[in-house]
């Protein structure tokens, strides 16, 4: 079985190429997803900071919030 027929070789090459393309696309998508998660985390941090500043401007403090719980 050392000699494969041309159809088998073509199929093997096709599958290898397809797997390589899929792997590259997966890596690209993974990077995009991680980047978006990082961006969302930064946005959430900014929102938390803004809410805290607004609460402080309105006279609320963390100690008052703890007492109310």
Walk me through the structure:
- The protein is rod-shaped.
- It contains 2 helices and no strands.
- The longest helix is centred in the middle third of the chain and has 52 residues.
- The protein is mostly helical.
- InterPro entries: HS1-bd (IPR009643).
- One of its GO terms (biological process) is cellular heat acclimation.
- GO terms for molecular function: transcription corepressor activity.
Order of helices and strands: HH
Give the rounded overall mean pLDDT.
89
Which structural class do the helices and strands define?
mainly alpha
Report on the biggest sheet: none
Proportion of helical residues: over 70%
Please tell me how large the radius of gyration is. Answer: 28 Å
How would you summarize the topology of this molecule?
Layout: H1 6-57, H2 62-68
Short characterization:
This protein is 86% helix and 0% strand. It is an all-alpha fold and 69 residues long.
Please tag this protein with its features.
0% strand; transcription corepressor activity; mainly alpha; Heat shock factor-binding protein 1; 69 residues; 2 helices; HS1-bd
